[in-house]
Amino acid sequence: MLRLTSSRLGSLLAGRPTAALTFSIKGRAASQQSHEVSEALDMSRPMYYDRVDMPLPDKPYKDVLSEAEQKLKQKEKGPWSQLTNEEKVALYRLKFCQSYSEMRAPSAEWKTVLGGVLFFLGFTGLVVWWQRIYVYPPRPRTLEDDWKAMQLQRMLDMRINPVEGLSAKWDYDKGQWK
Amino acid sequence: MFRAAVRLSVSGARSLTRTQPRCQAPLASRCYSHGKQETDEEFDARWITYFNKPDIDAWELRKGMNTLIGYDLVPEPKILEAVLRACRRLNDLASAIRILEAVKDKAGPHKDIYPYVIQELKPVLSELGISTPEELGLDKI
Q1: CA distances from B136 to A120, A137, B92, B101 (A)
Q2: Beta-strand (E) ranges in chain A?
Q3: Is residue A157 part of a domain?
Q4: Are the beta carbons of B129 and A77 separated by less than 8 Å?
Q5: N or C: at which end does chain B have fewer Cβ atoms within 10 angstroms?
């Protein structure tokens, strides 16, 4: 018998080759034999599922009915016009867990995801800042402005790239860039 | 005219100049490149026959409905009438309501399909005493 801990299983469960639709599974917890795992799902028996593309699952949501519920099921065998709206909703909820609207309802999960992403980006920023203060070596002397000025002057004096490059762009008579 | 002439040749002459693929049809029809194409009417009739089986059992109802919803179409009201009557024979009101929800969901962005279907099904719904999901408040969260 196949057993799985009850967690989100997604398209792994779908015997049909549909696109991966996540759906929550409500199955009976295995009875006597599952002492090693807390709530093992017996996947060899028909299971309930809420799917928009398969409206009628293999078993009803609630199959263990109380007295009142059994009475209601008996009443269902008669004319349905004699049922009140509450009884009709009760019958629906016995058979199904979520209605289509509830299945389709958007969740606020994206806010959590976005918040988590931004939080960790911020944390990374703090880590980088700390590294800049405590880990980076001292700034090389050659990157100071005065050194760079002296370096540029030396390159111009040496006539580096006089035809089309650096020195070609310097006006030696006026002492400025062309 | 050409199409009628082709259909009259019963033994299925597999000429390449067969019917055009009816991929633009809003209901029914798969787009095969060969073989006889089932018309919308044949498709509907097949499904109505399936659900009209007097001793249909719960499994067959579920299988038929799940398969029908799997197709790229919204079932015709006459098929749905047969489904609802099958639910009545099986004393299953919840599935009848679920099926109406599924039809609304199948229509997707085409918001005018579901009211049309409900309008067409009104006689059956009142005859069998089936409330729509809206009447029961099941369309709210």
Answers
A1: 45, 71, 16, 12
A2: 3-5, 25-26, 40-42, 48-49, 170-171, 176-177
A3: yes
A4: no
A5: N
- Beta-ladder partners of A26: A48
> pLDDT: is A17 or A88 the higher one?
A88
pTM, two decimal places: 0.68
User: Cβ contact (<8 Å) for B136 and A56?
Assistant: no
Ranges of beta strands (E only) in B28-88 are none
- Of A58, A69, A68, A72, residue with least CA distance to A26: A58
pLDDT range class, residue A39, cuts 50, 70, 90? confident
**A95 and B98: CB-CB below 8 Å?**
yes
Tokens of A64: 């263990």
Tell me how many domains chain A contains: 1
Complex confidence, ipTM: 0.76
d(C-alpha B125, C-alpha B136), whole Å: 14
State the CATH architecture for B38-134.
Answer: Alpha Horseshoe (1.25)
Q: Residue A66's Cα: distance from chain center in Å?
A: 39
Chain B positions touching A72 (Cβ under 8 A) are: none
The residues of chain B scoring below 50 in pLDDT are 1-25
